[in-house]
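Let's practice the habit of predicting before peeking. Look at the sequence and jot down your guess about where helices and strands might fall. Then scroll down.
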Amino acid sequence: MEYFFKAGFLGSTASLYMDLSVAYLVLLPMFMGVAIFFAVKRNYKTHRFLQILFFILAMVSLASFNYGVHIESSLFTLMESRSVAHNSASYIMMGHTVFSLLLLVLWISTLLFALGDRRRRALPGLYSLSHKKSGRRVLLVAVFHSFSMAYCYWMIYFA
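Done guessing? Here is the structure:
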């Protein structure tokens, strides 16, 4: 288990679990695109499985990132030798937190509504258009979250 706390693979001072978390969260929109591809091909069972899997992995990754930044070592301790001002770092982290919470809320609501609609046999079918719009919103927020995650990682460990 101590292997996860050793140096990571992205060339920074971050530990391996931080690098894994950031790599997954930055690539999340691409993974979501793969799951959407299965829905387009009408392979709904695989789509459903992948979306639930990616959601769980995203929540674990977000939790480990926040653990590493806020609990294991303070954000301001990490930022001491960086060129980014503390106020700027605080605002950027607040923006990233907003994207994280928005992604969480939208994705949970989309998953719960989809599972409920599936039980009522209204998905695929009656609510497919609404589900597609909701999925687009989640994907858009995931893209913004991905960029904010990459910027936060760069700001904390490279700037």
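How did you do? The chain is about 75% helix and 0% strand.
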